[in-house]
Every structure is written in C-alpha cells, then in structure tokens.
Amino acid sequence: MDKTATPISFQRVERSLPDLVKNILIHLGEDPYREGLAKTPIRMAKSLRELTAGYHVDIDRLINGALFEVPYNEMVVVKDIAFYSLCEHHMLPFFGHVHVGYLPKGKVVGLSKIPRLVEVFSHRLQIQEKLTKEIAEALNEAVAPRGVGVVVEARHLCLEMRGIETPGGRMITSCMLGTFRRDPRTRAEFLNLVRQST
Ligand SMILES: [Zn+2]
Fold it and tell me: How far is the CA of 10 from the centre of ligand 1 (A)?
C-alpha cells in the first residue's frame, strides 16, 4: 500500500495488534466501543498470538533432549493426534488428526515429543500440505530413522463456512520419506495401522 495514501487515522491505530483488530471491526461496520466488543481487540490479539506461538519454538531444542539410543527397529506409530491450525489464505481454522509413523535406526524420540511437534507446526499460519511435510521432515532430520510417514486428515472451515465444500468433508494429505516412500510393504503396514480403529 502507498504510505502517502494511508489515512492519518489508520496510521495512528496501526501501532498495536489490538488497535488493528479495532480497525477491522470499524471496517466491518461495527462499533468497537459497544459493550460486547470492548474487550474483543485485546482478546483476539491474544488468541492470535497463542495460535501462532509455533513461530517462536526451536525444533532442535524441542527434540534434542528427548532422543534415546535403543536397539528397537520396529515401526513406531502415534496416531489420532488432534490439531488445530489456521489456514494461511483466510486465517480461518482447519483441524483434524495427524498420524505419524517412523522406522527407527537405533534411535527413538520420546513419545510426547511427536504431539508437541504437531502442535508447534500447526500453531503457525499453514496449508495442510506444508504442515504434513514439515512434521515429516522435522522428524526425519531429528531422529534420522529409516523412514517417516505422516498422514493428516482435516476439515477446513474456510471451505465449509464459505460454502465451497460440503460441511464435514475431510481433506487427506500424506508425506512418505525413506523406506516409507521406497518400500510398498512398509507404507502398507503404516497405513493399515492408521486405518485400524482403536
Ligand atoms: Zn483458507
């Protein structure tokens, strides 16, 4: 936007996130000072900060303290990890479940770290494809396993609320690395474990 064309009042409120939210309310034809909305700018700013807190987490530090050398070389699967994210196109929620599997090569990661990894990447502005790939690549890099598989199933409110997709429809994405990509049996074992209801 051309700075010289920006109205003075907009420049004045541009300073803080709550002020920007207040400005959005004005643009929508609302009165940001009416009782119900008076605290909305502060609340919305706080919730946006929380929902994008994943930008400030160091993945190496998150995982490095929780790597264990073990002679276990069978597939590890953590499924049905719930996540909530915001799409980077509309900043509306998309949410669902992530299923993660990997085939260790002498090293495993503490089980609680996998849901944490999902949380960190989903608490950024995302698209589902990128979220899927980032989780798989981060795990692959940190644990250096034989392979990694990630499947994400999600509903997108930007599609459902705007009437572009039938409510309740899920989008499924996957990212397969290493043996999960190369070996159809490994991939099939993972996908079977994911499909089994618990
Ligand atoms: Zn969207």
Answer: 26
Measured in Å, how far apart are the chain's first and last C-alpha atoms? 52
Backbone angles phi, psi at 15, to 5 degrees: -70, -35
* Span 145-169, pLDDT tens digits: 999 999 999 999 999 998 888 888 8
Q: Provide the Cα torsion 125, 128, 133, 135; round to 10°.
A: 70
Here the tokens at position 116 are 């944490």
Distance from the Cα of residue 31 to its chain's centroid: 33
- What is the distance in A from the centroid of ligand 1 to the CA of 171? 13
CA of 167 to the centre of ligand 1 (A): 14
Q: pLDDT (tens digit, 9 = 90+) per residue, 123-138?
A: 999 999 999 999 999 9
The helix/strand/coil state of 155 is strand
- Give the residue-averaged pLDDT of 63-91: 93
